[in-house]
Automatic annotation (TrEMBL):
Species per Swiss-Prot/TrEMBL record: Acinetobacter johnsonii
Protein family (similarity comment): Belongs to the ACC deaminase/D-cysteine desulfhydrase family.
Name of the featured protein: 1-aminocyclopropane-1-carboxylate deaminase/D-cysteine desulfhydrase
Modification N6-(pyridoxal phosphate)lysine occurs at: 37
GO molecular function: D-cysteine desulfhydrase activity
Keyword entries, A-Z: Pyridoxal phosphate
Gene3D superfamilies xref list: 3.40.50.1100
Boundaries of every Tryptophan synthase beta chain-like PALP domain copy: 18-280
Length: 289
């Protein structure tokens, strides 16, 4: 099933500022478990299955596409799932679309304080978790671990590595871009548009790959994770209208805003062959966009 999906991803070709861009539409793989999350989960689910686990546990914020995708994939593969969600105050509020989607796919949600959530990678917390949930297979926040990176390498096929000079993607935790970097040809450049402010991501990715043909910019993060600007929202509306490709405001909108700006600044030669990974995330698209 995973193989079938990887082979059937369509490309769409558009022109931006006189440069031809190919968009790999991972958003079309599925309306919920869209795009990159599917590749990130692949080897985690196969491993959990092989090791005999029946339940999955993972972490996320209220807008985490990873939470929604894990809920869906867990149900599809017959796992029970538990999501540990940042923000105790959310427990008493109506669920947003992302969390509602997760719950509909059978995920049990547990809300924890921001302080508790911050501990999620500490050894003490993980040991406690292991004690509290001994029969759960634990997937880290955003789904990023070495199995996720292995899965994300499969986003690129042979042609993608031969036919393009530049590969662009949106960056959250850095798992997806690390897979793309690992799979890329050394003469290709991989450019990541961060959805978050800060340069800590570049340092983390340096720990995960020895290759150097990549760069990350946070110049188009619009103030930070899940933040938006009127300019971003207007860009998304115009882009969707022009190209009939849906975007959302957390990841893919910021990536294409950034790429369009770089093209308009004359950053790339006119014959530059650019591949854009549309990673999906459309279940989190603002309805009022
Ligand atoms: C999660 C997500 C990303 C970021 O992936 P990372 O591996 O966390 O960097 C990009 N785009 C979309 C639509 C996502 O849901």
């Amino acid at each position: 099933m995973f193989e079938q999906i990887a082979q059937s991803i369509p490309y769409q070709h558009i022109s931006v500022g006189g440069i031809n861009i190919s968009i790999k539409r991972l958003d079309l793989v599925h309306p919920y478990i869209s795009g990159n999350k599917f590749f990130k989960l692949k080897y985690n689910l196969l491993t959990a299955q092989k090791q005999g686990y029946k339940k999955l546990l993972t972490f996320g914020g209220a807008y985490s596409n990873h939470i929604a995708a894990t809920a869906y994939a867990a149900q599809l593969f017959g796992f029970e799932s538990l999501g540990i969600i940042r923000g105790e105050e959310l427990a008493s509020k109506a669920l947003n679309t992302t969390l509602n989607t997760a719950q509909q796919f059978g995920m049990q949600l547990q809300f924890v304080t921001r302080e508790a959530y911050r501990q999620k990678q500490s050894l003490g917390y993980l040991a406690q978790l292991q004690q509290d949930y001994p029969d759960y297979y634990v997937i880290p926040e955003g789904g990023t671990n070495s199995l996720a990176i292995q899965g994300c390498q499969e986003i690129l096929n042979k042609q993608d590595c031969e036919n393009f000079d530049l590969i662009c993607c949106a960056v959250g935790t850095g798992g997806t871009i690390t897979g793309l970097i690992e799979a890329s040809h050394p003469q290709q450049q991989v450019l990541g548009f961060s959805a978050l402010k800060g340069d800590f991501l570049a340092r983390e990715i340096q720990q995960l790959t020895h290759k150097t043909n990549w760069k990350i910019t946070d110049q188009y993060c619009c103030g930070g994770y899940a933040k938006t600007t009127p300019e971003l929202l207007q860009f998304i509306r115009t882009f969707e209208h022009q190209h009939q490709i849906p975007l959302e405001q957390i990841y893919t909108g910021k990536m294409l805003l950034g790429l369009t700006d770089l093209i308009q600044q004359g950053t790339f030669p006119k014959d530059h062959r650019i591949l854009v990974i549309h990673s999906g995330g459309l279940q989190g698209r603002l309805a009022a966009l």
